[in-house]
């Protein structure tokens, strides 16, 4: 007979989202300051890090992201923290992670015993492919929570790191009795599209002309009308869901070319709206998008035009002491007909403006600090060159990790390097400058059926593995998505931007050759 023992804490947990739970969470977060001061800077200190790579985002939108469940593998870059000899990691995922993938990351550890690192790595799985977020799955499994707690040696030297922090992650933190290195869910409105625009206005930062806090289809018609009246030459506008991500919460409306009567602009928009609205998310149409918009709300902004236009991003971190730091800058590569979908990123951003966007982001960070924000966030821009000068328009704040987080973390942890925001240069511990190109979207039907082991055999045979001595080469993520989706993430590090690009082109060429029918 199986035991019917219930694995619950000695104490009764407060209701999710209740004032009592929030109070307990706040106490845990306050205790994190002491842990941060006493342990974080000590590489030899005994500590435990619980990694929850849950994409706790809108599930309807998330399902549009092919292979989204394997995006939980992106935070495997944090296994590089095992190079600290007394650091233990507990990594939880929806599905078991292929041992080949784990071996791959363990062997990236510089000058460290793989066997010793393995002893300090604990991999747990929910064995659950459902559409719910990983954190929800964990909360539904008291025995799994019990196993996690058994692996924690000292709660005062343990913290949780997540992709993003919502009410579910707050509940899990309270159940485990540990703090989270992330933003209090009560501050998530600063990460919504309307909340971002409001904060940017308070900080005196340029933003695209537009309107926020919209709720209905009629609100959209009115906002689109006002934009067109304010700028008669405007050709397109972008509609964004409040909590959309990776461009999949966006749609682009193209204005009709001819208006018979300026007074009838709204009438023309109403008539043409559904036909002229292009939804970015695959397998989604205008009716579905509007239904989602009326449920979630959102904004309308001018589609920024420009002969010379880029999409830079800045990562920042706010620590438990209330200090903010610019971590990195990137030039994002956006794809799709209207360049709304994140495909990859060059690091660092263009030297012509990387310092300028860092300064702007620091202003936003200071404002978020005043509100009590904690952890990593990124700020996305549209930058347009006008009369030989770049003008930067802030678009959104991502109060979470994102597509530019894991490549930078991997580079930083492998090289012990630092990004210098004043010069825009990343310098390794050995004094070398590094660049990279990273993409989550190397995707082809020809790659379907390829396993992580197949990939390792290919790159070993072609001598394309990352060189720990030269600190150059190619690394991989999202390997679990290969067989089913033909999708792979690639990070290419080089001593120059051009060399990083060459590594990427070479890897894509090799994959095409190896998988040719």
Tell me about this structure.
The longest helix has 22 residues, at 19-40. The chain folds into 4 domains: 19-181, Rossmann fold (3-Layer(aba) Sandwich); 187-208 and 306-429, ATP-grasp fold, B domain (D-amino Acid Aminotransferase, Chain A, domain 1); 209-302, no CATH class; 434-517, TATA-Binding Protein (2-Layer Sandwich), CATH 3.30.310. It is built from 16 helices and 20 strands. It is α+β, with helices and mostly antiparallel strands and 517 residues long. It has helices at residues 19-40, 59-62, 99-106, 114-119, 134-139, 142-151, 167-176, 193-202, 217-230, 265-276, 286-296, 354-370, 405-415, 452-461, 482-485, 497-514, and strands spanning 47-52, 87-93, 121-125, 158-162, 210-214, 236-241, 250-254, 277-279, 298-302, 309-310, 312-318, 324-335, 341-347, 375-386, 389-398, 418-420, 425-427, 435-443, 473-477, 487-494. A hairpin with an 8-residue loop joins β6 and β7 (250-254).
Which descriptors apply to this entry?
517 residues, alpha+beta, Rossmann fold, D-amino Acid Aminotransferase, Chain A, domain 1, 4 domains, five-stranded antiparallel sheet, globular, disordered N terminus
Short recap of the structure:
The chain is α+β, with helices and mostly antiparallel strands and 517 residues long.
Structural class label? alpha+beta
Biggest sheet: strands, sense, closure?
9 strands, antiparallel
Class of the largest domain, according to the CATH hierarchy? Alpha Beta
Would you tell me the overall average pLDDT? Answer: 92
Radius of gyration: 23 Å
Shape: globular
Q: From the 3D structure, determine the CATH topology of the largest domain.
A: Rossmann fold
What is the straight-line distance between the termini? 53 Å
> Total number of helical segments?
16
Low-confidence stretches: 1-10
